[in-house]
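Quarterly update from the structural biology core.
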Amino acid sequence: MPKGDGGETIQVHLRLRPTKKPSGFIKQDDSDETIVRLKIPERGVSRESGYVNNSKTSYNFKFNSVLDMPVKQGAVFDRVGREAVSSVLDGVNSTIFAYGQTGSGKTFTITGGVDSYEQRGLIPRAISMIFQEFDNRSDYQFTCHISYLEIYNEAGFDL
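Predicted structure, tokenized:
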């Protein structure tokens, strides 16, 4: 939960999954980095065929922030997780919810990769921050409960 002056309680961040060959259909706006533009290519439209495509081919989506393809896991935590964990430590419930289609990178963002320590995801970084703060706040007594839930095909799994 943000503590800013805007009074927002829900933030939406977009992380663009790195890809070897970007399609070019999705781009961050040049003047506003919180806007993503989706341009759907027109197909089958030609003057010769007489076919006219009247459907919308360009969409703009606004987010609290957009984490572009080269962003590292540490930057994702700094942008998305740090404030949520800080709020929890101040007694405010927080939730980080990763949503997207299969293969979009949710698990990597949340749990991280196994190749290096720097690939740790939001959960390991949040746990590290929580226990570091427990050490720093030795004048407090803490009880810690953490839940990690996966919803897949409308069924919940407590991981």
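Confidence is low (pLDDT under 50) at residues 1-6.
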